[in-house]
Amino acid sequence: MISEGWCGKILRIDVSKPKHVVQRLSKEMAKEYLGGRGFAIKILWDELSSGTHPLSPQNKLILATGPLTGLNIPSSGKMVIASKSPLTMGYGDGNIGTKASVQLRKAGYDAVVIEGRAKKPTVILIEDWEVSFIEAPHLWGKNTFEVEEELEEEHGDAGILVIGPAGENHVRYAVIISERGRSGGRPGMGAVMGSKNIKAIVIKGSGELPVLYPEKIKELGREAYQEILKKDNYNYWIRQGTMMTVDWSQENSDLPTMNFKEGVFDKADNINGDVMEEKYKVKRTGCPKCNMQCGNVCEIREGLFEGSLVEVDYENVGMLGSNLAIDSMDDVLALNLLADKQGVDTISLGNVLGFVTELHTREMIQEQELDEISLKWGNGEAMMRLAEKITTRDGIGNKLAEGVRLFSQLIGKGKEFAMQIKGLEISAYDCHAAPGMALAFATSPIGAHHKDAWFIALEVKMGRDLITREKVLKLIEMQRLRGGLFEAAVCCRLPWIELGFNLEWYPRFLEAATGIKVSMEDVFKISDRIYNLIRCFWIREYGGWSREMDVPPARWFDEPLEKGYLRGKRLSRKDYNTLLNWYYEERGWDENGMPRRSTLSKVGLSYVAGELESRGVTLKP
Ligand code: PTT
Ligand code: SF4
Asked: Which residue of 95, 297, 311 sits with most ligand 1 atoms within 8 Å of its CB, as the best mutation to test the pocket?
C-alpha cells in the first residue's frame, strides 16, 4: 500500500487472451498525477505506441478514479473514462457519475486498463480480486437500457458500464452509458469499448474505501453536506439542475441555434427548464454520494416514445433542440432517449444533424435519402430517422457516423461551418460574442468540450469585449481547477460551480483521505503537468502542432449574429490571436502552441521533451 488514500493497485486486463494481472500503483505516480485523468494520460503516454489505431486491439481503455472518489463527501461518485480517441486521434476522456466508480474502489483498484480484442462479445465481471470474462453474443445488438436491466437482474447491486449499438458499430462519437442516463466519454470511448468486443463491464466490490483518517472524513463530510443544503441556489438547482441554463443562454445570446449560426432561438421558451419542470419532470436522480442530485427524469408525453422515461440535461436540449430548431420538448426528449439507448453522444449528434441539415438546406449536397425523410430545420421525426441511421451506420448514416470534421473532409465541403475543434464537436455555447469562451473551447485538452472550458459566465461578468491578459490568466486558473482538481481528484465540480461550495474544502478532503498536505498551488502544479503531458501526447500523434489546431471554426469570425441583442457581433481574428498569444506565453508554449523544453522540465517532464526530440520534433528552449 503506497498510502491510505489510494487503493495502490491497477487492474490490467487483456481481453484477447483473456487474462488479468494486478499491478502496484507507484508512490510517484500517485503523488505526481493524483488520479483520474492524471493516471490516464501518464499510462497512455508511457505505454501507447504513437500511431496506434484507436479502434485496434492495441489501444487502451482506461477507467480511473482518484483519492476522493466514492468517499462520503459531496458528489464524489465519479470516474474518468479515457483512451486515444477515434474521433480526434488525440487524447480523449469523459467523466461519468456511476456506482461503478465506488464499486471499483471497493474492489480494491484505483484504475483498470483494458487492451486487446475479445473473440466474441463479452461482459467483463470484476468482483474484488476475481475477474471473469463472460461470452455474451445474446447481448450484442441490444440497447443500453435492456442490457443494463438484464445484468442488474443477474448480478444484483453492481456498478455497470455498457455500450449500445453505436459503440458496437464504431460510431466515432459513441459513449459509455450507466444507470440509464449517465453518459461518459464524448470522444468515442464507446467505440473503443465496442472495438474490443466488450458489451459491458460489471463491477462489485466488498472492501472498504481506502482513507487514512476515516473519522476526519466522516466529520468533514457531515459538515460539507450540511453546507450544500444551506446554499441559496439549492432549491432551484434540485428542481432544474443544468436545465436552468437554457434561459441563461438565451438571455446571453449563446444558445446554439441552427448549427451555431445564431445565439438565440425564437422558441426557446418551449424547451426551457420551466417547461421541463412543470410538464415533464417526474423524478430526480443522480450520481452516488451526492445530496444535490441534478438528474431530471422526464416522461415523454407524445409521439413514438410516449410514456418512456429519459434523463435530460442542458447540453442535450441545446444540441438536440435549439441547434436543430426543434421546439417540441417531446421531440427533444425522444432524440435524447434514442441517443442514450443507442449509446451515442448527444452533443456530437446534435452537431452532426445540424451540419448535414445546413448542407442539405443550402443544396450543397444532394442526397436522395435526405429528401426521402424531408430533412429540414425543426423536423424532429426526420432527425430521429437520421439519428437511427447514424447509430447503425445505415446509408448516409455511415458517413455521418465519422463526425463533422471527417464528414466535411469526405465531401470536400462545409469546413467553415463544421462546428468542431481538434475533431471534437463543440458543446452548447455559441461564441460569436465570447472570445474568451472561444479560446477556452479551442485550448481544451480533449477538443471543444465545456468540461475544461466553461468560461462564459465569468466572461460575461468581466466584459465580452475585454481583450486583456487578465482574462487569459483567469481562463488558465479555471482550467487548472476544472481539468486538474476535479478530473484528477476525481469528483463532481458542480457543487463548486453551481452552488458556490468553497474550494477550500478540497485540500482538507485530500489531506484527510491521504495524509498528504496538498495546497491549491500543489494542485495547480499537478494540473500543469497533466495539461502539458496531454499536449505532448497530441504532438506525438500528430507529428507536430500548428496554431490552427487551437482556433475555432470560421463561422464565428465571418458571419455576424443576425438576431438578439448582440446582433452584428462576431469574433475578431486579431483579438483572438492576441488572446491566443498570451495564452501560449502564460502556459510556457511557443508561438505555435508547442511546449518549450524549459516548461516541460519545470513540470517534471524532461523525459517527455527528450522523447519528442528523438522523434524529430523541435522544441524551443
Ligand atoms: C459530458 C457531456 C454532458 S456534460 C452532457 S449534459 W452536462 C451530455 N449528456 C449526455 C447524455 O445525457 N446522454 C448522451 N447519450 N450523451 C450525452 N452527452 C453529453 O455528455 C454529467 C454531469 C454534467 S451534465 C455535467 S455538465 C458535469 N460534468 C462533469 C465533468 O465533466 N467533470 C466533473 N468532474 N464533474 C462533472 N459534473 C457534471 O456531470 P462526458 P454524467 Mg458525463 C443523458 O461524460 O464525456 O464528460 O460528457 O457524466 O454522469 O452524465 O454527469 O449539462
Ligand atoms: Fe452527479 Fe449532478 Fe450530483 Fe454532480 S451534482 S454528482 S452531476 S447528480
From this structure: 95
Pocket of ligand 2 (CB under 6 A): 75, 97, 286-287, 290, 292-295, 492, 494
Average pLDDT of 569-574? 98
Separation between Cα atoms, residue 127 and residue 413, nearest integer Å: 50
The answer to whether residues 330 and 301 touch, using CB atoms and an 8 Å cutoff, is yes
Residue nearest to atom 3 of ligand 2 (CA): 293
Query: Closest by alpha carbon to 524, among 442, 451, 586, 598?
Result: 586
Ligand 2, atom nearest to 77 Cα: 6
87, 441, 451: which to mutate for ligand 1, most atoms within 8 A of CB? Answer: 451
Report the relative pairing of strands 295-299 and 281-285 from DSSP bridges: antiparallel
In angstroms, what is the span from residue 463 Cα to ligand 2's centroid? 30
The model's pLDDT over 44-91, given as tens digits with 9 standing for 90+, comes to 999 999 999 999 999 999 999 999 999 999 999 999 999 999 999 999
Q: How far apart are CA 506 and CA 442, in angstroms?
A: 28
Q: Of 159, 57, 151, 62, which is closest to residue 106 (Cα–Cα)?
A: 159
Question: Which grid cell sits at 414?
Answer: 462545409
Distance 184 CA to ligand 1 centre (A): 6
Virtual CA dihedral for 591, 44, 32, 447, nearest 10 degrees?
40
E strands, 90-173, in order: 91-97, 111-115, 122-127, 130-135, 159-162
Q: Which atom of ligand 2 is nearest to the CA of 495?
A: 5
Rounded CA separation 246/224 (Å): 29
Q: Is 133 helix (H, G, I), strand (E, B) or coil?
A: strand
Is 156 in a helix, a strand, or coil?
coil
pTM of the shown model: 0.98
